[in-house]
C-alpha cells in the first residue's frame, strides 16, 4: 500500500512530520510512504538517507492555517496538501495524511479526491478517550457546522462500519448526542435524525449525553459539527485544566512532591489515556479515498500512529465497505 503524507502541514512541520514518517517506514517496511512537500525543506531531516520505502514528491506551495480553504485549494494547485490529494485521486496513493488546515483538507477531499457516491457530506471522525481505553468514535467534530437529519444518518452508518473494520468492534452501539436521553428531546434536527437512525442498518441505542462520554456510553456518537466541536473542545480544555491543577497541587510543598513521585507512574498512564497522539488522526469518511486529518500540533508519535491507523483501514477495505453499505452494492 502507498500512503501520501503532507509534510508541510501542521505546527511542527516539516521536522516532526518527516520524523514520524521515517519511524513508520522503519516499523512497516511493506508500506510505501510518499513525502509530499518542498524537497529542500525535507532533505535536512534525512541525514541518514532515504529508506527504500520512502519517496519524495515535490510540492512548491503550502496552504497555511490563515488561508481561506476553498480559495486556497483552487488557487494553490501546487500546495503539498492538494498534491497529496491528487495522488489519491489518480490512484498513485491509497491514502493521504495531513496535519494542516482542517477546512482546506475538507475542501481537498471534496474537490480533489472526490465524494463517495451516495454520500451528501463527508464527516470528520475522531476517537475520544474513555476510562476503559476503548474510546468513542465521534462524528462529526467540525467538518460540517450545519447538518441535516439525513447527514447524521449517513454519519452513523459510516461510523459504525469504521468502528467495526478498523477497531474490530462487532455491532458497535451508536448514540445520538443530545441534551437528554429521552426519545423526544432536542431540537427539530435531532428529533428528525432520531427517527432516521432507528431505521438505519446500525445498532442504535438512542440519545446520549456528553457528560457520560468518558465512561463510553456508546461506541459511536453522532452529532452535527457545531455541537461535536464544542464537546471536543470542552473535553480537551477540561483535561488540560485538570493536569495543570494537579501539577500545581503536587508542587505546592515538600510532602506533596513526595506524593507526586509515588504517583508518577499512574499520572503518566492517565496523561497517556487522554493524549490525542495515541489515536493518530481523524479520517474524513465519505470520500472516494482515505483522507486522514492529523491534529494540528501532531508530533512524530502522532504521525506514526496516523500511518498505523491508515494501514488498518486500508487492510480492512473500509472505503469499499462504506460504499457497498451506502449504495447497496
From TrEMBL:
InterPro entries: FA_synthesis, Phospholipid_synth_PlsX-like. It is found in: Cytoplasm. Keywords: Acyltransferase, Cytoplasm, Lipid biosynthesis, Lipid metabolism, Phospholipid biosynthesis, Phospholipid metabolism, Transferase. Pathway: Lipid metabolism; phospholipid metabolism. GO terms for cellular component: cytoplasm. Its EC number is 2.3.1.274. Pfam families: FA_synthesis. It is an enzyme of class 2 (transferase). It catalyses: a fatty acyl-[ACP] + phosphate = an acyl phosphate + holo-[ACP]. SUPFAM superfamilies: Isocitrate/Isopropylmalate dehydrogenase-like (SSF53659). It comes from the Bacteria. Homodimer. Probably interacts with PlsY. NCBIfam families: plsX. This is Phosphate acyltransferase. Belongs to the PlsX family. One of its GO terms (molecular function) is phosphate:acyl-[acyl carrier protein] acyltransferase activity. One of its GO terms (biological process) is fatty acid biosynthetic process. Its main location: cytoplasm. Catalyzes the reversible formation of acyl-phosphate (acyl-PO(4)) from acyl-[acyl-carrier-protein] (acyl-ACP). This enzyme utilizes acyl-ACP as fatty acyl donor, but not acyl-CoA. The lineage of its organism: Bacteria, Bacillati, Bacillota, Bacilli, Bacillales.
Amino acid at each position: 500500500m502507498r500512503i501520501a503524507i503532507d509534510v508541510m502541514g501542521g505546527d511542527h512541520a516539516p521536522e516532526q512530520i518527516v520524523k514520524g514518517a521515517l519511524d513508520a517506514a522503519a516499523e512497516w517496511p511493506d508500506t510505501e510512504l510518499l513525502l509530499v512537500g518542498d524537497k529542500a525543506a525535507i532533505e535536512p531531516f534525512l541525514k541518514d538517507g532515504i529508506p527504500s520505502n520512502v519517496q519524495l514528491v515535490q510540492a512548491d506551495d503550502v496552504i497555511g492555517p490563515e488561508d481561506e480553504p476553498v480559495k486556497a485549494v483552487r488557487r494553490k494547485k501546487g500546495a503539498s496538501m492538494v498534491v497529496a490529494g491528487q495522488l489519491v485521486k489518480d490512484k498513485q496513493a491509497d491514502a493521504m495524511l495531513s496535519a494542516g488546515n482542517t477546512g482546506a483538507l475538507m475542501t481537498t477531499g471534496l474537490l480533489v479526491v472526490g465524494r463517495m457516491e451516495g454520500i451528501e457530506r463527508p464527516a470528520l471522525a475522531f476517537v475520544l478517550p474513555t476510562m476503559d481505553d476503548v474510546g468513542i468514535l465521534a462524528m462529526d467534530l467540525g467538518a460540517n457546522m450545519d447538518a441535516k437529519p439525513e447527514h447524521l444518518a449517513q454519519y452513523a452508518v459510516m461510523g459504525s462500519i469504521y468502528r467495526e473494520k478498523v477497531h474490530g468492534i462487532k455491532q458497535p452501539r451508536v448514540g445520538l448526542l443530545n441534551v437528554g436521553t429521552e426519545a423526544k428531546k432536542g431540537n427539530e434536527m435531532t428529533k428528525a435524525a432520531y427517527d432516521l437512525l432507528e431505521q438505519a442498518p446500525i445498532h442504535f441505542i438512542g440519545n446520549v449525553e456528553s457528560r457520560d462520554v468518558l465512561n463510553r456510553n456508546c461506541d459511536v456518537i453522532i452529532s452535527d459539527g457545531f455541537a461535536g466541536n464544542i464537546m471536543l473542545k470542552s473535553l480537551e480544555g477540561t483535561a488540560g485544566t485538570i493536569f495543570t491543577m494537579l501539577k500545581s497541587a503536587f508542587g505546592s510543598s515538600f510532602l506533596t512532591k513526595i506524593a507526586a513521585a509515588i504517583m508518577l507512574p499512574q499520572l503518566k498512564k492517565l496523561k497517556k489515556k487522554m493524549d490525542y497522539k495515541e489515536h493518530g488522526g481523524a479520517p474524513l469518511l465519505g470520500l472516494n479515498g482515505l483522507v486522514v486529518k492529523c491534529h494540528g500540533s501532531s508530533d512524530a508519535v502522532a504521525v506514526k500512529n496516523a500511518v498505523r491507523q491508515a494501514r488498518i483501514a486500508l487492510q480492512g477495505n473500509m472505503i469499499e465497505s462504506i460504499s457497498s453499505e451506502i449504495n447497496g452494492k
